[in-house]
Amino acid sequence: MRFATLTRQPDDPLLRIIGQHAADPRPGKIDLGVGVFRDEAGHTPVMTAVKAAEARLLADQASKSYLGPEGDVGFVRALASLVIADAVAKDRIVGLQTPGGTGALRLAAEVLARAGVARIWIGSPSWANHAPLFRLAGVEPAMIPCFDLTTQTFDLDGFLAGLGDAAGGDAVLLHGCCHNPIGIDPDAAGWAAIARHVAERALLPVVDLAYQGLGDGFEVDANGARTILSAVPECLLAYSCDKNFGLYRERTGALFAVSPDAETGAVVLSNLLSLARANWSMPPDHGAAIVRIILEDEGLTAEWRDELETMRQRLASLRAALAAGGRIGTIDLGAVAHGKGMFATLPLSPAQVEWLRDRHAIYMAGSGRINIAGFNTAAVATFHDALRDMVANGVV
Questions:
Q1: Which residues are known to be catalytic?
Q2: Is 282 exposed, middle or buried (0-12, 13-18, 19+ CB in 10 A)?
Q3: Is pLDDT of 196 > 90?
Q4: Domain membership flag for residue 179
Q5: Number of independent structural domains in the chain
Q6: What is the spatial distance between Cα 385 and Cα 383, in angstroms, rounded to a whole number?
Q7: Do 311 and 36 contact (CB within 8 A), yes or no?
Q8: Nearest 10 degrees: Cα torsion 46, 107, 284, 304
């Protein structure tokens, strides 16, 4: 009876929030937990360019036969050209399709473990799945506190000082843009300083680029990743198309590896393919085929970029509206204006988060992380009022 030796694992906190919100009968409830884009009506729409690509795929796809473990090669090639561009020579880049950005990160973790990397340094707080994902693959996470929630700022000096304890050959995880869960990114000078530090200490960077186009714009959002890629001989870049193409349930991602030369790259790719084969055998194709069709067609690419820019502007507008609430008690909402993308983390205690949920039907992670896209215009004002009520009631 081997199953009897297992112990029950705690429920995922975010999944618990989803269930609680769904079961709440109160009108006007607000879901700030789930990390998906929503329009003003609260819907997560399918992008028009995606619908057009799907129609073309339905008409033209001649087979549902397996792909190889590398996935849709055209998708990988088009994405590399778009994202990495000229940051490094093409012959130094290899890549393959993965089931979402999470699949790319897991594959990155496994190839790091196979290469003998024992530790990865991560700025804290980070996406809740980062540390367990690497730990379960055999790469121990080392956390570096480097964010001030009160001022909504990134402590570059603290992060670099934390990396001072890293040994040559360790890995370091970097959010490419629109940091999850804080929403605060290094500026151009900060990225350059990180790149120099990583190169000088011979660290292997793993760039998680999951929100390109939702921060300062598609090209600008790639600058941090490109700065890192151009500074080091070796790098891994995990990419997700879930947010910027709206392909959440299609789980569409890719992992790219930059190596010193083409010969080393071929060895790296052979290891990535063998690990992918043992994990998921062949990746699902639908989402990758959609992205490939869009990127191979100038008209669809332009349409997609326009839609993505509309999404970006909506997030920026909601963030500005939230920040307009100013200081409420000890919470300076104005500082949220410093951030980019879908997420911010407010300096709220678990007790305050619970009170907002029970009293005002406002759902968010216990850490205070909120999804900016969970608001609509009216909900921002409701949230301001709820915070004032919380302060007036002395909830701490």
A1: 127, 208, 210, 243
A2: middle
A3: yes
A4: yes
A5: 2
A6: 5
A7: no
A8: 30
